[in-house]
Amino acid sequence: MAKLTIPAEELMYPGHAACPGCAPALTMRLLLKALGPRTVVSIPACCWTVIATSYPTTALGVAVLDNPIEATGASVSGLRAAADALGLKDVNVVGFAGDGGTADIGLQALSGMLERRTNAIFVMYDNEGYMNTGVQRSGATPLGAWTTTTPVGGSSGGKPEPKKDIMGIVLAHHPIYAATLNPSFPEDFVRKAEKARSLAGPRFLHALTPCPPGWKYSSEETIRLGRLATDSGIFPLFEVENGIYRITRKGGALKPVDEYLRAQGRFRHLGDDDVRRIQEDVRFRWERLLRLEAESANLVNPGSLRFPGPWIGERAGITGTLEADG
Amino acid sequence: MEIRFHGRGGQGAVIASELLAQAAFLDGREPQSFPFFGVERRGAPVTAYARINDRPIQVRTSIERPDVVVVLDPGLLNTIPVTEGLKEGGLLLVNTRRAPEELPAPPSIRRATVDASRIALSHGLGTPAMPIVNTATLGALAGATGIVTLGAIREAIDLYVPSHPAENVRASEEGFRSVRVAESTAAPLAVSAGRSPALLVLPEGPIATTPSYGIHTAAWRSLTPVVHLERCTRCNFCWKFCPDNAIDFDAHGYPVIRLEYCKGCGICAEECPPRTIEMVAEG
Amino acid sequence: MSRIVISGNYAQSYAALLAKVQVISAYPITPQTSIVEKLADFVASGELPAQYVQVESEHSALQVCISAAALGARTYTATSSQGLLLMHELLHWASGMRAPIVMGVVNRAVAPPWSLGADHTDTMAQRDTGWIQFYAESNQEVLDTVLEAYRLAEDPAVRLPAMITEDAFYLSHTVEPVDVPASEVVDRFLPPRDARAVLHPGTVARLGSFTGPDHYVEFRREVARAMEHVPETFETVEAEYERATGRSHGGPMPTYRADDADAVLVTMGTATTTARGVVDELRSEGKKVGLAKLRLFRPFPTPAVRDLAATVDRLGVMDRSYTFGAAGAAATEVAAALYGASHRPTVSSFFSGIGGRDVTPSEVRRMFAALLAGEPSEIRWIDLEEQEAKADG
């Protein structure tokens, strides 16, 4: 048998209530493989509230705390403060929220958690809409996508606004580590999650998680679609550690976005002009990312252009944040 | 008249119940329809209720003693106590290829069947993995019971079904014509207990501690993965990508699919480099 | 023990210090700020080895406490008015999670228009959230009740959050002598929180969970049952506190000269002090009046109210809050408590001291006068009546 390329340990139990082909379920499975059993996960209202099954069962082999949809950032700060106050060692504190609970209603608490430099990992699993409530638009829904609240027909042609750049928002807080994850690339996913685990300070992971009923495709396509999202540049895989960008998957020329878009019912109505516009946007953002990578590596001596952390509070250990490596 | 629908998320059981109510209203009667508001997940068992009367309906509860039970997916017969509470002389209508006489049901229950999956697909409704069977089944319900007229169903579809109304009308007509009813009784079906009894002792807070692997999700599945081991290279891609954690290895490193959990998403078959996994339709 | 002159806000801070809270989280709002500033000083100086989590909203402050309490930490937060209203959703979470958080609330009027004055509308709007509610009359009572509240909230039979409220400015910024018990005395009275019924990292457990109709009501019933355990538990706690410090504040509803009274006024918070003085004056004028102080509002002390009602014919209830379209919150609850009683006095509902308006002796006299005259029960805005009377000169 081929050597396993990701940890064998399973901390997400079968019997859970995710839809067939659910990428958020696979994301949780891969994440817990990387983080291990001494993890406390705070979960707001989202698909995973339901996926984790109802009382008295739980689909997660770790300690889980439910919290309201807007409060995950605060919840992880509370968990970390308690762990520090009670002397609990080697605990991974994790917030695991959907795109709404992260980038829309959860944004204030996330900003607070990053700014106060809580020593925790915040994971946004991004299925690009309010899927748990039946596919409504969120700030993370991409341009042109059909949802039940951005219908197609009459004066509407899907979502008229572009997707919110959550990584940009997060990076403006100078986290110690931020990375994009794609469960279609499990080795890259697990490596980044393990790296996040090894660091102290605020860490953010953005996972793209295709949703068969919400994106309107057949469940077996989940992995292929995720792969296409990255290989067409729609969802580049990169990480930012202490301000240094690194693209973790560069497969030569980008694939055209057409194949990715056409595979999904939510984009079926888009015309050639729409697709061209999306293609231009993707190319722009990809090239900007390449420049950010080059600049952050070469503008000055590698390693010298760094955020000047750890901050005063981190040195003094007052905020409940472990020392960041500087 | 009280009707209970059992289906799986995505099949349209809730819409069937609503359409039935709309059709009954068009017939000049007083209807009521509502879903059991649990957590609807594609493939997961779903229940919906409908009441039809000549006077305004004065009750708002789930239906415990239905006159008719409609089952949109034959796989549910093995996993859900569909006939629980069904009145003596009541009707069990199932979407299946089988003849009504072959249906397991308690004595004194009338049985009816319709091959709504075939009808739906022949009119281009849904996919083989998930045919949209609600309108064909509704036609069959009208044919087997007469509780609504076919004309009212047609009109309700025209008014309230935005997608493929013409095909849905034809599917309901074919369901109406092809439903088969058996009056005799068959071997009793083992009826298990319904909802879980309320716990008498709870912890002081809402703390769930029972691992979910006691829950079997096989009933969610329409297509079943079959591994052709002779071509398997033991690359473990199937395991790596399974969102249900439903794949194990045997002592030699070959994949073993835990069918009690597999929801039949097909990712393993799709991602298998040598294509050793085949998705096979059940029953 | 030391006797020092401090504000009601500092009484909160000293109580949290003595309780050795482990996690503090708060967001500033007038007139609460000096509570959390003082706590920040205690933490900075090393006097209080707690984690102080700076947050971007009251909403997050309470979530920090809920999550910290879930892992077993003793937590404290404080807020007021708009901040408490923003917390509303999380108040339900705290009680449902059985998180024994103690929170100081400075009762302040709700906008619009903006006002900083004392007013109980903020906490009255939270009376159905599953929190134990104490209303304090003095700075001493603030400090003592916060310490009692930790014992009560963490008691295995209760395990519910508690708020200890104090009137804006009349306590929050009023300095007066307070006995601060010695740390060893408090340590004996209030041991560290026990680690049962909390989430332990490394175990399989989901706190919060998800239910259908098949379990939900059972969990709600557990919260209600916990509330039912509060009165007897509090009696024990207060008796022990008295043994430890020599002080008691008289249980859930202490009364004053009510035994033979023709009319009794029910008050909450600082208005009680003024009203007590008026009772003495009226008594000296030969009028048989008395007083009852609603100290514990949740759970509502129905037996104490019925005991009081057994000997009196006219009750007035002074709410320092208002209810649009109904009688005052406290008045309604008093009346409801009496409905099944064998002897039912009349109950009058007085709104007084709204938005920081002084509850003057004259206003209190006006309320007693109405009761003694046997005027029919109706909802009366005493502040406005008083204003008109002054205008008429």
Structural class of chain A: alpha/beta
Order of helices and strands of chain A: HEHEEHEHHEEEHEHEHHEEHHH
Mean pLDDT across residues of chain A: 92
Number of domains of chain B: 2
End-to-end C-alpha gap of chain B: 31 Å
The structural class of chain B is alpha/beta
Assign the CATH architecture of the largest domain in chain B: 3-Layer(aba) Sandwich
Name the CATH homologous superfamily of chain A.
Thiamin diphosphate (ThDP)-binding fold, Pyr/PP domains
Say which CATH homologous superfamily of the largest domain in chain B is assigned. Answer: Pyruvate-ferredoxin oxidoreductase, PFOR, domain III
Total number of strands of chain A: 11
CATH topology of the largest domain in chain B: Pyruvate-ferredoxin Oxidoreductase, domain 3
Order of helices and strands of chain B: EHEEEEEHHHHEEEEHEEHE
Rg from Cα of chain A: 19 Å
Structure description:
The complex is a heterotrimer of chains A (326), B (283) and C (393). Chain A is of the alpha/beta class and 326 residues long. Chain A has a single domain (23-306), classed as 3-Layer(aba) Sandwich (Rossmann fold), CATH 3.40.50. Chain A is 36% helix and 14% strand. Chain A has an eight-stranded mixed sheet with strand order 3-1-4-5-9-8-10-11, sandwiched between helices. In chain A, helix 3 packs parallel to helix 5 (107-115). The longest helix of chain A is centred in the last third of the chain and has 27 residues, at 272-298. Residues 315-326 of chain A have low confidence and may be disordered. With 283 residues, chain B is an alpha/beta fold. Chain B folds into two domains: 2-182, 3-Layer(aba) Sandwich (Pyruvate-ferredoxin Oxidoreductase, domain 3), CATH 3.40.920.10; 214-281, Alpha-Beta Plaits (2-Layer Sandwich), CATH 3.30.70. Helix content of chain B is 24%, strand content 21%. Chain B has helices spanning 13-26, 116-122, 134-145, 150-160, 165-178, 237-241, 267-271; strands spanning 2-8, 30-35, 45-53, 68-71, 91-95, 110-114, 180-182, 207-208, 210-211, 223-227, 247-249, 255-257, 277-281. The longest helix of chain B has 14 residues, at 13-26. Chain B starts with a strand and ends with a strand. Chain C folds into two domains: 2-181 and 205-245, Thiamin diphosphate (ThDP)-binding fold, Pyr/PP domains (Rossmann fold), CATH 3.40.50.970; 255-392, Rossmann fold. Chain C is globular, with a radius of gyration of 21 Å. The model of chain C has no long low-confidence stretch (mean pLDDT 96). Chains A and C meet through strand 1, strand 3, helix 3 and helix 5 of A and strand 3, helix 3, helix 5 and strand 9 of C. Strand 3 of chain A pairs parallel with strand 9 of chain C.
